[in-house]
Records
---
Amino acid sequence: MSITSPLAKRLAQATPAPIAMRMRGLSDRWIAWIFVGPTMLLLLAINIFPLIWTIKLSFTNFRANRPNAEVSGVGIDNYVSVLTDPDIWAAMQTTAHFVFWTITLQTLIGFTLAYLIDRKFRGHGFWTTLILIPMMLSPAVVGNFWAFLYQPQTGLFNAVAAFLTGVSPSSFSMLGEVSLAPWAIIIVDTWMWTPYVMLICLAGLRSIPDYIYEAAEVDRASKWRQFWSVTLPMVLPFIMLAILFRGIENFKMFDMVNLLTSGGPGSTTEVASITLKREAFEKWRTGYSSAFAIILFVAVFGLANIYVKALNHIKSR
Amino acid sequence: MKTMLNKMSVMALIALASALSLGATTTQAQEKTITLCWAAWDPANALVELSKDFTAQSKVKMKFEFVPWTNFADRMLNELNSKGKLCDLIIGDSQWIGGSAESGHYVKLNDFFAKEGIKMSDFAPATVTGYAEWPKNTPNYWALPAMADAVGWTYRKDWFGKPEIQAEFKKKYSRDLAPPKTWSEFKQVSEFFQGRMIDGKKVYGAYIFTERGSEGITMGVSNVLYPFGFQYQDPKKAYALDGFVNSAEAIKALEFYKALYKGSTPPGLTNAYMGEGLDAFKSGQVAMMMNWFAFFPGLDKDPNVGGAKIGYFANPSEKTKGVQLGGQGISVVSYSPNRSEALQYIKWFASPAVQKKWQAIGGSSAHNAVLKDAGYLQSAPYAAAFQDSMNMVVDFWAEPSYAQLMLAEQKRVHDFVVADKGTAKEALDALVADWKKIFKDDGKGK
């Protein structure tokens, strides 16, 4: 087709040529690579390269604080040392305890709150906003704020507990007693992150079409039956997603523990990430801590993969 | 005539060029800035004031990078290990000297000292060994003693002076209530004040260090360990730890520290160091407080608890004398692009006149011109206690692996004292095992 009118010619000249025409000789695939390339390079530089470098370091005796010392290969010694170190296993147990209880409490309370908020009642928007506030705060603020609340002599938490139980407020220290310190952290994490679980559960509840409940009511299903047969199965993938996110997040929990107890009293609340930080950046055992980091990475990655497979299985039912 | 005019023109041009280049040099010198890194605390503010004199004299501007104590080691050692150029001068902790010397982070100052006539014999011997030498007790200097410090005690003189309290104490213990000289006396005094009502407020016996994360509980327990007879190693055989670190005396001392923690301190004191101690003392919670002498000038000026209300005493003794050395030396960072200006600062700082001013405005000089001055003991209410303390200081390991050694002690001591885990013997045996492993990895103590 030829362009005949002067107006059409001017329009054709003003219109930019297609990219492929301008970049002569480049296929669509190459152009796609040009666009994706910088992102890929960035990912390689900040994710893949450090990972490969960490794997390399984990087989050496390298210490970052001794740049002039000779670095030699130690085979799998670091991995053996990590896996046979009782302090590492103690930290892993502490982490597991922490992950289990925070996820259990956050899921139960989060789902209950979502279920209640999902009932349309007056002012539910206001209550939703109010409940969401803790997760919007900075962990540094939350940690310091709760450290004050837990102060035995002047803290509000102890005062309220004393009012309810009749014990003296300064007779117990949430952050200083071996039996209470882990629970002090679990309470704070639950307070902060339950709204997040609630939000995901609420999305799940709101995604259930009303006609399913209408059909269940036609079938004379009780509210309890509707909950077990409709609500829970349909919201389960969302709950599992929330558990996955919180599980990964809490497995590497550092900030809150560091601010509240620094791993103490003794080593009672020393979770794996605190141990890793101490080994890597305080003791400067770079090779050893690299091995520990790889073990943690493989554990989280492996568990997350198994979990995602289970999640897909449930979704496909 | 023309030739003469030409010659004069050339000379004028040369003179102008010289003047301009001189001006440029002066401008360059004026614009030169060096950065001094230290911890964020009261003496650092005093150093900012003091350094204005250096800038006025040398035209070298000063910048300061102060980091809170709890992050100081992490931040600064990261900086040094990454060969960073942030700090031209660093006032690093005494325990860093071994690692920083061996890793090449600090400039060796022997030649500079010799050239400038700076003599280490002008400084208190304990501070030279503690802050400047590596290997210890050899004339290899990596720093100039900058901030002499040790653990000391402050007490509520006004409470001790109350007639009814004095009478009750005398009736109970058959002696006058006075600042304790031994740990046995200290325990009596602290238990006497524990839970007592004074001026309508419940008060507690003593504040001691219990911090877990960095160095707190180690810096605290050492003040009981040393006087009870603890030693880091066999004096006749380096790195031989068995029977010294976990000696019967050391076990008794650790049990004593735990007894103090359990029976003489305010509730909730489970992870507390310098700042928390000052808060507890300033708010009138405790009768006696363990802390670094460096804080005492500020405390003495406190409107609520300072001045005549408080007194100071040196660390109590028991079987022997001993107290934890604190303080730091000032070093030139070897990666600094401004080495000559940094050395110029060291030279200026080492002069007796500057050291006297440093002491007067809130610093703590280790220079004999200050410490041996006739008026020193009268210069501050804590001066006598400080002088006593500097005669009995002991320092923690200053090995390149000091951080590992420190964290091992932090864990073992906190586990026993605060977390009630195991016995004192088990804690110290475990500490010996930890330290042996660290030294073995370093190829020492075989």
---
Amino acid sequence: MATAPTADAAPAWTPDQPIVSVRDVHKSFGGFEVLKGVSMDVKKGEAICIIGPSGSGKSTLIRCINALVEVTKGSILVEGQEVNDPKLDQLALRRKVGMVFQQYNLFPHKTALQNVMMAPINVLKQDKREVEERARKLIAKVRLTGKENSYPGELSGGQQQRVAIARSLCMRPDVMLFDEVTAALDPETVKEVLVTIRELAEEGMTCILVTHEMKFARDVADHIYFTDKGVIVEHAPPAEFFDNAKDERTKTFLGQIL
Amino acid sequence: MSDAFASPGRPMAVLLPPRAPEPIGFPRLTWRHGLFFVVAAVLIASMATAQTPPAQPPASAAEALSTAPATPFSVIIKWSPLLLKGFAFNIVISIAAMTLGTVTGVILGLGQISVNPIVRKVSWFLTQFFRNSPWLVLLFFAMFMIPFQFNIFGVIMPFPDWVKAIIGFALPVMANVSELLRGAIRSIPNGQWEAATSLGFTRTQTIWQIVLPQCVKRMLPPWMNLYSLITMATVLASVVGVTEMLTLTAQVHAAEGGRPELFAPLYGFAGFCFFLYCYPIGKLTQRLERRFNVKT
């Protein structure tokens, strides 16, 4: 499936080791097994796209990486830290791993700027002025200067999603998870969000994306994973994956989509 | 979308709708309301006249002058300062009961979503118990179960009837607010919790900083409705002898000789005061409901 196992990695993590290492992860909801032994490695600075039919466990997989979902069996290491550890310092994990959701999930009672500033101030207890400066820069970075004081309800879907990206970035994560972040957007606004993510990837942010945007995956990803029915069927660099898929299921899926 | 809505430091931001709203004014009384009151007054007056015993021809002009019964209107005017003072007492009881009930209800409501199963079960039981008991029963319960004074470290704290009445009315408010809060918290999309968790917020931080502020908006209309109901229920306190408006009305009626034709005007006046107070609250609630229903 994936590359040689490095699950026995010592706690001392070095940047040349995979920043996220998933080993034989199983997850069941009730009696239904969503993930049936998934393994993958993500190197620092890589952009990974996970694609596959709906219900194949993509979203569950990335939710496992930041411990929003507890795994039933297996191991996930983020910078050498075991996520599936009852004694896990969840805050330490969550400042390393940022997440952006399909439905944006901005806090509707806070302005865009407050949304971005909230977690660093209230969770990380950082200095308010320093956070505000950083937040304004991030809002400028996602091209929303002038919308700082707008409430989420006053922004378009694409704008809200960019605020959500800025909100996540303000925690200064090492890894960003994107869960079908363009799936709820109008076709015209998809692009503005993808441009933002592309810039992030090009700046060297480690990105793990679940997406249905095949063109984007081909252009931006360093590696593509294809999941179906809870397993990783195939993974390869984009050029090889899209032009030279080996597995029948991959071919069928790509045939339906492209 | 306008920039006017993007100004920082807007007061009570959680109360504001996501999109540009029409201004919500306090409901104003129009000629329609005036018409309604005139019809009501005519009805009450005609009932009063119908109940008047046939007038005995006065023996003499002098006697007629001295014993001519006061008209219902003049009786109300004469006693209105006292009656309105009683009404003010109803308002005081309702506000105090609502305050006490809301504070305890929020605690109980949070208990209902506690991670501790014992706290959760106990909160659930208390909520259901007080929510499904008649208000008058709870009032009696408070009146006769709470001692008339407490001895706290040698300091004797008297508990007059009206304080016990406040506690009695606060009990159903508490249970209803608890249930309102539980419902409001459940109605917050799961994505809000997920987003907060992924940003490192603890459960407590998520509840206080993210979930509860959003619940305020959702809870406000039903909470106002509950207030209006509890205000009207404060007259139940007359049953247990608190000198609020209804008690005073009965006393005034007795002081005026218990004349049957005064019955409708006096109690009508009491009802009218409550109407004037509660109707605008109900209207405002409706408007808030309509506004908060706007989908984002």
